[in-house]
Amino acid sequence: MILSDDAKASSKIEEFTVSEKRWMVAVRMVSEGVDVPRLSVGVYATSTSTPLFFAQAVGRFVRARKRGETASVFLPSVPTLMALANSMEAERDHALDRPRKRTATACSIPRTR
């Protein structure tokens, strides 16, 4: 358990980084400046919903990986967070030159008379 107000929090994260421990529970500690490439599952359980904080926290998990490796970030179905996640997905797809997803509002549905 690593808490942001613990004076040894940074050293505990560093210990985890070089260890083979499977789990780290870090409260308000995995965002800007934290580099633990093996992080692969995160739970976004904070009320902070600014675009910058969200991108930094999610970015600690969802980063370039070896082929076949995946990462997941679980977040509550809160409209603000879902919008931020959708925006990040669109930016990623654009950067990777992936085709845009068709949504119910964007696709043409034939009308019957």
Assembly state of the chains shown: single chain
Low-pLDDT sequence parts: 104-113
Spatial shape: globular
Note the run of SSEs as H and E.
EHEEHEH
Tally of strands: 4
CATH level-3 fold name: Rossmann fold
Sheet having the most strands: 2 strands, parallel
The appropriate CATH architecture is: 3-Layer(aba) Sandwich
Rg (C-alpha, Å): 18 Å
Percent range of helical residues: 25-40%
- According to CATH, the homologous superfamily is P-loop containing nucleotide triphosphate hydrolases
Which structural category fits the helices and strands? alpha/beta
How many discrete structural domains?
Answer: 1
Outline of this structure?
This protein has one domain: P-loop containing nucleotide triphosphate hydrolases (Rossmann fold, 3-Layer(aba) Sandwich). The protein has three helices and four strands.
Please explain how this structure is put together.
With 113 residues, the chain is an alpha/beta fold. The chain has a single domain (2-95), classed as P-loop containing nucleotide triphosphate hydrolases (Rossmann fold), CATH 3.40.50. 32% of the residues lie in helices and 9% in strands. The strands form 2 sheets. Strands 1-2 form a two-stranded parallel sheet. The longest helix is centred in the C-terminal third of the chain and has 17 residues, at 79-95. The radius of gyration is 18 Å and the shape is globular. The N and C termini lie far apart (62 Å).
